[in-house]
Amino acid sequence: MKKKIVVLSGAGISAESGISTFRDSNGLWENYRIEEVATPEAWNTNPELVQRFYNERRKQVIESLPNPAHQFFHELESGYEVVIVTQNIDDLHERGGSKHVIHLHGNIRYSKSSGPNQERKYYPINGWELSLNDLCDEGYTLRPHVVWFGEAVPEMDKAINHLIDADYLIVIGTSLNVYPAAGLIHYVSNSCKKIIVDPKASELKVDSSFIVLSKSAVESVSELKKIFGLE
Q: Which of 105, 145, 162, 186 does the annotation list as catalytic?
């Protein structure tokens, strides 16, 4: 039976593919306020602005390519059961080859109903533009398949169930500042081997049981390959 690796990934891994992050000094929040584009209230107040914001992000995602860190996790599948739990709304893990990806905050390549049955069905978006004239099967306007601030995280329980029996946990490209996702690291067993990868990993709030790699996601690949016997 293969050992199980759960990867908790964040914006840092996709930043190396050229996707802007929200919290960096040159990130997307520089031009938008959270309240304007990433809350249910924003959608109710100005759906045109919200739709335009996510259309811009979707275009950027489509034009970006998976990097060696994304591809490394696909390589790991040759010898391990690998589950990706990502905070990212891009699909670079899937395009990098990973077969089991849980999107905690949604997937921008999909839309969902703005009505009461939002999690019943997700609709693939053809291209990068979603229009306010696009409707779900029940006649409601389609909105981005993204978990906004103040909304529940439907995939949390699924992620927790995988973390509970993980043999390895790799935390990569996340500052562990966004909750409830950041709290997932506390669900692994005492026997789980834990690794954290981030240029500022030594400053993050993790206990001494973590192997700390103070590198970017791409820079860490060669060392991770050694740890997991791929070199």
A: 105
CB-based contact 17:64 (threshold 8 Å): yes
Residue 27 has pLDDT above 60, yes or no: no
**pLDDT tens, position by position, 128-169:** 999 999 999 999 999 999 999 999 999 999 999 999 999 999
pLDDT score of 26 more than 60: no
- Answer yes or no: 145 catalytic: no
Vertex 194, ends 191 and 196: CA angle to 5°?
A: 170
Q: Please name each of the domains of the chain with its CATH number.
A: 1-17+66-105+153-231 (3.40.50.1220), 20-63+108-146 (3.30.1600.10)
Nearest Cα to 88, choosing from 177, 165, 15?
15
